[in-house]
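Every protein is a chain of amino acids, and every chain bends into a shape of its own. The fold becomes a row of whole numbers, each drawn from a learned catalogue of backbone shapes. The protein below has been through that process, and both of its lines are reproduced in full.
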Amino acid sequence: MKFKGYVQIYTGNGKGKTTAALGLALRALGAGFRVFLGQFLKSGVYSEIKALKTFASQIEIRQFGKGCFVKGKPSEKDFELARQGFSLCREKIYSGQYQLVILDELNLALHFGLIPVKDILELIEHKPEGVELVITGRYAPDILIEVADLVTEMLEVKHYYHKGIKARVGIEK
């Protein structure tokens, strides 16, 4: 299956960045694509991970986090997990096995300095033509926005979280 892959970024402070990327993954799976999902700063079994495992022959999911987002200064373990994760993601992109690669929360990992932005720029520059690359997370660096082919900013207008409503199974987690 030959096609030209582009670079997409989903960023902003609004809800829906990972959800949009997973919607694209579902579409790609339906088209017979193989998908790699690398999640930075996350670990654990979310509802979407459970659902995607039903496509185990077409999707590989890996997580590179301690189970909670970085608050304050990142630990050495945060740096180590991000570096290992990025190395694996780079291998998957260059492997020729996947038509869609999603690097979930990579922008946030960049924001915290866990991975150098220059490494991502190099990855994009050498990305194989037949790989669609999706990068999600708040705080996308301006240079990534500049080099990407598609950028969507999720803008929070109103969110029930501010009224104390916690993440709900099946909706936010």
User: Anything to note?
Assistant: The helical segments are 17-30, 47-52, 76-94, 106-111, 117-125, 142-147. The longest strand covers residues 35-40.
